[in-house]
Amino acid sequence: MAWVYLSRVVAGPCAALSALIETVGVIEAARAVRECALPEVLQGPTEARRGIDRAEADLAWIESAGGRVLTPDDAEWPAWRLLGLGQLDPAHDEAGAVPLVLWVRGRRSLLESTERAVAVVGARCSTGYGNHATGEIAGELAARGWTVVSGAAFGIDGMAHRAALAVGGVTIAVLACGPDRPYPVQHDRLLAEIAETGLVVTEYPPGTSPHKHHFLARNRLIAALADGVVVVEAGIRSGARNTVKWSRRLGRPAMAVPGPITSAASVGCHRMIREGEAFIVTRADDILDEAGPLRLSLPGAVPSNPEDNLSGDEALIYAALPTIGCRLPRALAADTGLPMPGVRATLSALEIAGLVACDANGWSRTASPPATSTEAITAAHDQHR
Amino acid sequence: MAWVYLSRVVAGPCAALSALIETVGVIEAARAVRECALPEVLQGPTEARRGIDRAEADLAWIESAGGRVLTPDDAEWPAWRLLGLGQLDPAHDEAGAVPLVLWVRGRRSLLESTERAVAVVGARCSTGYGNHATGEIAGELAARGWTVVSGAAFGIDGMAHRAALAVGGVTIAVLACGPDRPYPVQHDRLLAEIAETGLVVTEYPPGTSPHKHHFLARNRLIAALADGVVVVEAGIRSGARNTVKWSRRLGRPAMAVPGPITSAASVGCHRMIREGEAFIVTRADDILDEAGPLRLSLPGAVPSNPEDNLSGDEALIYAALPTIGCRLPRALAADTGLPMPGVRATLSALEIAGLVACDANGWSRTASPPATSTEAITAAHDQHR
Fold this sequence. Notes:
2 copies of one chain form a homodimer.
Chain A: H1 2-10, H2 15-24, H3 26-34, H4 40-47, H5 55-64, E1 67-70, H6 79-87, E2 102-105, H7 110-113, E3 117-121, H8 128-143, E4 147-150, H9 156-166, E5 171-174, H10 188-197, E6 199-202, H11 212-224, E7 229-231, H12 240-249, E8 254-256, H13 267-274, E9 279-280, H14 284-291, H15 312-320, H16 329-336, H17 340-352, E10 356-359, E11 362-365, H18 374-384
Parallel strand pairs in A: 3-4, 3-7, 4-5, 5-6, 7-8, 8-9
Antiparallel strand pairs in A: 1-2, 2-6, 10-11
Helix pairs in contact in A: 1-3, 1-5, 2-3, 8-9, 9-10, 11-12, 15-17, 16-17
């Protein structure tokens, strides 16, 4: 009851109040707020609403909506996810504080649902291309067991939630308003579905309208609850850039999906990539390379293109062999200008390397070694450089 | 006549022959080749065709086509452009040598035309999007007085030439065959137009057919004649990647244009950007930021210790490299805590600055930073942020 009362008083994160609670306990802190027996730093933030106590009604409502209020004392509190927020300089940006409480709708454990999670966010005015790309990427992440975190907005956010729902995956909507407010109102039905199989999360008590500064604070929570943030489309002044900033401040990878250079909806993504604010990603594998646990390269991986690894006479001879079919050493000598003994010696070396073979008709390339996986390509690439 | 004779004998670059000419002069070198009075390293490359001398007919043909043969002795020879090729380790890759001669069609000076030049290359199987993007970018570069260098192939190359021609700009086609061979044959008319107002350039004597290894050598020449290479579309195994590799070896910026992640024709571009092989660019301004004149930040002295000039990720990565010996990118990532793409991008920037190099064993510090390191670091640094 004390937590719920305080959540309505400050309506959002408040580092000073969290610190007071940690020192004197939540009940004593609530009493101090009620009686205005407070250090000066807390008088401003609590002044407007310290007289309002609807804790009982609020609790009754969230329970009737199948939800709960999580506090740092709960086992389900995603403490390690939020740890980074507590370490940001609070003087620098108040919105950076650890949430006071979280209003949660949905049956899943927030702690477990955010164990492996990626945020997928982007432009409200998305294009058909952006929607398609979001569907592919968020759908693949969700199908592979990753929770998709987003902001339930029009455009990319909504598509990200829908794609996760469509494959039976887990998705979390983080709101910038009270848990009873569907925002945008057209996503009423979508939010209800998310609450059914995933989670709807907010720092704000019931009845809170979305305000501009709520969105900035909400963005930090999206970044904090995920292993990384992916921006699919973003105009030149998109709010997604703010989420990316939070992700970087928290030391987590920020990623952006490229698009046509002719599309205004991709300008922000290209700019973030170009300015080193976000890594370029084009598919779920790329995203998990950044946000997932480190994958080790396989020893013995084969290069995808054998020619890249050749030089000198070997490169000449290999290039002079047709992709399909055979040639005789004499023809190779005429083409490359190498003497016959050199041609033969080089063919032998290439044969030992498994790149060429010969039969009654002459010498041919062997079938290209297949690139078995992303790791193989990456490893081969590393070897090359 | 001696140059022209030798051009047909070796049909392409030949570092050993260039070295011999430098030592004994071209006439004496031609005599030595004719009489096979040669060091062993030159016997192979000259064996097949030293008996063929069509120098007179070749010269008559190129003159009748409004062209000329340029040699390193000509004032029009773009010596400083090709300087980097001569400094590549010739043992590592024969194709890296300085051209023996250049067969040129067109009235302009090659030296002047390549003073400010950008190569725009890409997929033969380009898409409507790629063609449009090429038209915008190459057209803008040409309109701003930059020469557009490309390979006259179908797709992106052809579009790049056409866009430059369309705005009355200068464009250079570099061929992988003789100057008399329109390749592809459907670009006969296009090549004639390029020769009319721009230049058609090749290392190969008249009659030479395009072979696969010619294309690899041709790609180095495209990279060498430009201040930087821009890839507009590239499939996963595009030849454009080879041109990018040359550009990087020559210490010039490699750039790639993003596209829809749903397009196979952009997969190679996205991969090069992701792996730090190319910078993302979306318009002419971005390209001139990378390839344009270097921005100097420090007047005067070059610091004795390159580390003094580094900051951020570059300082981290440089410090993580041993004074003697190599490391792999993955080990650097583990050490510095930077993600792999960041490691790769940073290594690229340091490579461009001449502070690190890589071989088959991994990345190492260069023995002695180049004299221009201050500017290079600043430029590489700017490119990055």
